[in-house]
Fold:
Amino acid sequence: MKSFRRTQITIAIVLGVSLFLALMSAVAQTPSPRGVVRLRVRMKVGNAQKGLPRKRFYLIKGSLDDNKALLQSMGAQPIVSRDCFYRGLHASDALIRWLKENDCESIYCREVEQKDVEGPQAVPEFQAAVATGTKAFGTADLARKWLAVNLSDDLRIGFYRQQQQKLDALLKQAADATKATPMSVMTDRNGTAYFTDVEPGTYVISNIVPTEYSGATELWNCEVTVKPGDLASEKPYLISNQKDKTVKCVAVEKPLPACP
Structure:
């Protein structure tokens, strides 16, 4: 009797394990209910082309038609270029050049090096901040590393703050209209970014605030459909500033206005 009972228990365990493995196999073969968008931003100037690094893009719920009012608000933004903003502050040509070299919106985007405070490439604003800081910190090297504290707020982050205020207002409009917070990603050094764990549906990929590039502004609003289990493993969703047979979406380009 005991032997028969042990046999029943063994059979039950085997059947249970088999059922569990079968269920796990079925789950593994079932497509994920969510998807991925692999975005690639490729810029063209003449015959040269390269990825657009360190730029943030957003995934807004709904189609282009659903977001018509939001797109109109994006297109109606007043454009003040980085150069015009800093010239309005009477910034030196050297500071404007320093910001432009690495497409910086503030002085925090890269380290201020020794060559930036002395020699032919020196930035007068940095030199003055180091001179002031040396008295407080004791050494010029430490003053250079902390020079931001001796620059005016507008010189430090004024342009970035201006852009961020525009962005925050438009993000709020998007969230209020769609009842969903837009997802965001930043491109890597090759201009590639991934939106992951995306609920299936139709979306608009946008940079929301126009990007300055080669004397113009670029504003992308691209409709994309995400399917269940879409891993974007074959081809990226390619966007650019110029048309091409592989490009899915082209930016609306406007020339930068002249500074007053």
About this structure: The first strand starts at residue 35 and ends at 45. The helical segments are 2-29, 68-75, 82-88, 93-101, 124-137, 140-145, 153-178. Residues 83-155 form one domain.
